[in-house]
Amino acid sequence: MKVLVYADVEAGQPAAVARELVTGARALAGPGGRVDLALFGADPSAAADMGVDRILTLPALAAAPYDPAAHAAALSAAIAAAGPDLVLMGYTTAGLDLGPVVAIRHDLGLVSYCQTARAGDGAVETESQIYGGKLIARAATPLPALLLMNVGAFAEAAPAPGQPEVVTLEAAAPQGLRFIDATAPDPDAVDITRADRLLCVGRGIGEADVIEEAQEVAGLMGAELVGSRPVVDAGWLPKERQVGKSGRRVKPALYLALGVSGAPEHIEGMGEAGLIVAVNTDANAPIFDHAHYGATVDLTDFLPAFRAALEGR
Ligand SMILES: Cc1cc2nc3c(=O)[nH]c(=O)nc-3n(C[C@H](O)[C@H](O)[C@H](O)COP(=O)(O)OP(=O)(O)OC[C@H]3O[C@@H](n4cnc5c(N)ncnc54)[C@H](O)[C@@H]3O)c2cc1C
């Protein structure tokens, strides 16, 4: 199978999601298959270690700010050149911008929110998390098709040194859009998607004062402190520390959830964590359906006891 991956770019480098998609693309392509990378916002050398067979690029866009019309035209050119059975994109801002446009242009079946993808007989079988993860929709979509994959659906590919062929595309410059400004994320802001351990506080903390204690315990654990949406909406933690559907999707080795009920929109962001430990006074809280370990304890009792245990180590 021929698979084309569109690479989101951050700060001139293929984003982590692009490396994840290459993992999935290699599995879907199978032995003897081909994986091409459409890389428009960066120099091809930035993707030399991604383990793809070819890099399809458009030099005019490499140093230019992201422009959806220009990227849609370039991705169309890449699809025309590569003739893929399957196009993989992240369910990201760029994926949302471009996926439906090129799917219509090239008559590709489009499936969104995909958490898994498997090659079937002339089709691709997917599981999509819809309604905030409340429903899993299974689909078998005839090829050629385009999948918008959830961030974190595949593991990030390890660097694979090699010399992929670089193919230079030609695409007409689209008219009508004018780039005005881009706001980069605060470079000092924490990237919780990279943390190995996370301590998450939910509405169960009750008041802002508990944040300080939780922050200290997180420090002792070597963890980043994150929160559910109500905690962020209350202004107790900054937005970049929100986990869930409208926050970040994380996959740490350890996720300790204190006073988090386990709503589908929260689980959507952390359900893939390696080890989930939940502390909640309600034994029927849905978080316990996802946790590997749990304790029905009041977190105001748990925090000082846990802190003392960590300090005593
Ligand atoms: C479109 C959309 C997007 C959303 N995006 C997100 C998102 O990105 N992230 C997110 O988190 N939510 C998101 N939500 C909100 C989500 O539906 C839930 O409302 C939210 O996750 C609940 O947060 P919580 O678990 O902290 O609070 P609650 O649901 O209020 O749960 C608090 C829990 O704390 C427990 N508790 C109370 N006191 C204590 C105590 N002293 N000790 C121990 N446990 C205690 C309670 O038993 C309860 O289980 C979204 C909703 C929508 C509709």
From TrEMBL:
SMART domains in alphabetical order: ETF
Domain Electron transfer flavoprotein alpha/beta-subunit N-terminal: 3-183
Signal peptide: none
Keywords: Electron transport, Transport
PANTHER family reported for this sequence: ELECTRON TRANSFER FLAVOPROTEIN ALPHA, ELECTRON TRANSFER FLAVOPROTEIN SUBUNIT ALPHA, MITOCHONDRIAL
Similarity annotation: Belongs to the ETF alpha-subunit/FixB family.
Name recorded for this polypeptide: Electron transfer flavoprotein subunit alpha/FixB family protein
Source species: Ruixingdingia sedimenti
